[in-house]
Amino acid sequence: TTPQNAAEDGFVHVRGAREHNLKNVSLDIPRGQLVVFTGVSGSGKSSLAFGTLYAEAQRRYLESVSPYARRLFHQMPVPEVDTIEGLPPAVALQQQRGTPTARSSVGSVSTLSNSLRMLYSRAGDYPAGQELLYAESFSPNTPQGACPRCSGMGRVFEVTEQSMVPDDSLTIRERAIAAWPPAWHGQNLRDVLVTLGYDVDTPWRDLPKKDRDWILYTEESPSVPVYGGLTPAETRAALKRKDTPSYQGTFTGVRRYVMQTFANTESASMKKRVARYMVSTACPECEGKRLRRESLSVTFAGMDIAELSRLPLARLAELLAPYTHATSKVEKGLHAEQLIVRRRIADDLSARIEVLLALGLGYLALDRSTPSLSPGELQRLRLATQVRSSLFGVVYVLDEPSAGLHPADAEALLDALAQLKAAGNSLFVVEHALDVIRQADWIVDVGPLAGERGGQVLYSGVPDGLRDVEASQTRRYLFGEAALAPRTPREPTGWLKLEGVRRNNLQDLAVAFPLGVLTSVTGVSGSGKSSLVSQVLVELVGAALGQGSAVAEEQSDEPDLERDEALPLEGRIVAGMESVRRLVRVDQKPIGRTPRSNLATYTGLFDQVRKLFAATPDAKKRRFDAGRFSFNVAKGRCEHCAGEGFVMVELLFLPSVYAPCPTCDGARYNAQTLEVTYRGKNIAEVLGMTVGEAITFFKDEALVERSLEVLNEVGLDYLRLGQPATELSGGEAQRIKLASELQRATRGNALYVLDEPTTGLHPVDADRLMVQLNRLVDAGNTVIVVEHTMRVVAGSDWVIDVGPGAGDLGGNIVVAGPPQDVARNKKSRTAQYLKPHLV
Ligand code: ADP
Ligand code: ADP
Ligand code: ZN
Ligand code: ZN
């Protein structure tokens, strides 16, 4: 067919797609329909939907823009595919990998804040005599709007005695002043204090306040002789004798050191280090509202714009209703023009908020920062924005839109997708939730397995036809053959009881988590599950164990200032703590943000592999130790890319991209290192193996094999050992963390907390994960998951249903008990979805 004909037959024709693991696949996909891509994790769904279809649409669009733009984009990957015909322009609504760093909010992503600013500018109530302000004056990100004291941040960063001297029982010599620079520079400052006559051998808290204040806050910088290595008494004597000093040392007050280093250093790690000694508090000038006084003096419905932006969207909608066209009445003292403007903006805002409410996001406020949203919430927010933006003839490519959604919320999502379709668009959706798959007009099932053993299109057609496709894993779940076996829930061995819990929408809640069993916490999006489990429970148990925040590995290099002050921890553990020895939180945060961390390094597997290489006769002859085989050490790595295998390419106007290193071709090592082989493979080739391949290769090495087996068991056999952390999805990162935990000897009495562990997992992978979680429970541990997949909930021992609704309408325990009991509860919104999964 010619492209002309192809466009006319209503299908997208893909021929010879070979991106990643795709095996030269050809298929036709209908336009104007809801097309769902299914298949086990790693089978190639994303490679087809995003890597091929979306990438090609994007590339064509950019080519059509201008030769200039094209030049900037010449590094845009060209998907491995022979031809695609009939492809409309595409918009991707992908779940972002990693955390967004931009200072954006619900209001900015949805563009609702723009309209709200217009409303305040044109139709707000101004104090008598104040001139009208432009819309920009209501944005903290413009010079016209930003509070001059905090530059629109809403917070000011300061130091306190407590933040600079966290442990005041220490002496200065014992490094009481933790905020001081490390190593030599810190010692130098201490020696200067000795010369100046300050006591460095008395606990900080026993020093006179005058001395403490001077040391911390002085703006003076006296320069004095320093005698290195002398005691305070010897120093005094040396000063008296006017001995020649080791050098002249200059003092800097601790506060000054911290503030200046933070403001001026170019080193990210220095900045991060000093940031630890600062605290942020609400700006005293704007009270955290981020705007100038004049801007805050303008009100609407009696509130300034910051107050309005803090309301849940559901309340904002109620508040706007009286001002919309349908209900608004002419008021005294209001110009006709003001009235028209007010109605028009209120109408527009109300209509757009309506879509967000329909998608179950009514509990969000406009000023909620996007980094605090779950990826699923962010994706729905973007989706809602699209629903209102009357585009037509576009294909929307979505990545697991049901992630984070209770089945009740998923129904609203399907409505929104239906609206986009009705407006003449196509929907290509990668999805695992059976409720969503069942609504598809067309299914593309990829498989049969992951990685090398996947990459084929097993089926492309209307849903019912999948019934007969033997090789499909999806088929068994979709057509009811893989029903759960009946089981008797395990009996709890004890109870972990919490009382007086307050956080977000939780108000003085009491809750009991059973120990020694698998518990699912359910409830609609925004009901309070994360506040209860991932926040308060984790914080309380962590504090009781002295584990601090207890959140596994934070590997970021960036100072964490965007993070708000820690919320006060309200609640207490009243029973059960004696049976909890360890807290393990397995979240979906990335395991690292550079290609330097990968599967093998994170799990510790790589240490074993390097030892094997160092033990080969060839390595011994060359005197190569295990360090030689590390790409993090100068000895053996390629120096051009410093062992990253990639070099960063800076693009004008765009985020930089990584390209393979031209010297080592991505191998990461120098030539001599690569000459050493273990059973015929060099170290780079081993890193290039998938977990599955490595299991065969390392069959005789018990330690290595054990780590690999665990990765295999959590369904990650398709990942390469050297796969950079930056290429992993949140779900993959979570399973890698789980695998690392599983390979430790299980001593029992640990509490495992997982937030939606089945995100990104095909039902067959979710079943495997359940096997692992059950194994942890059988070994004497407690597992608590926040979960939406009813198959998993049905297979748990205990269910705690939070709700009944979202935000103010939630925050209570609706019912707690074995799955059977919850399924019978009339008030629970989970019951009706759970029931069909119980036999
Ligand atoms: P799915 O979406 O079905 O989970 P993917 O399309 O993401 O699967 O992955 C299919 C295969 O391609 C997997 O073996 C995966 O490891 C590999 N793959 C994915 N992304 C990349 C990449 N950026 N570079 C190399 N291989 C990749
Ligand atoms: P769930 O996990 O059930 O989806 P959450 O515990 O995330 O629910 O949210 C419960 C309520 O608390 C919601 O109204 C939500 O908007 C609010 N909330 C959650 N996190 C924050 C936060 N960081 N700032 C303000 N409100 C929040
Ligand atoms: Zn301010
Ligand atoms: Zn290199």
From TrEMBL:
Residue ranges of the TM segments: none
GO BP annotations listed: nucleotide-excision repair
GO MF annotation terms: ATP binding; ATP hydrolysis activity; DNA binding; nuclease activity; zinc ion binding
Gene Ontology CC terms: cytoplasm; excinuclease repair complex
Location of the ABC transporter domain: 496-835
Main localization category: cytoplasm
Pfam families: UvrA_DNA-bind
UniProt subcellular location: Cytoplasm
UniProt keyword list: ATP-binding, Cytoplasm, DNA damage, DNA excision, DNA repair, DNA-binding, Excision nuclease, Metal-binding, Nucleotide-binding, Repeat, Zinc, Zinc-finger
SUPFAM superfamilies, alphabetized: P-loop containing nucleoside triphosphate hydrolases
Stated family: Belongs to the ABC transporter superfamily. UvrA family.
NCBIfam families (UniProt xref): uvra
Name of the molecule in the record: UvrABC system protein A
Species assigned in the record: Massilia aurea
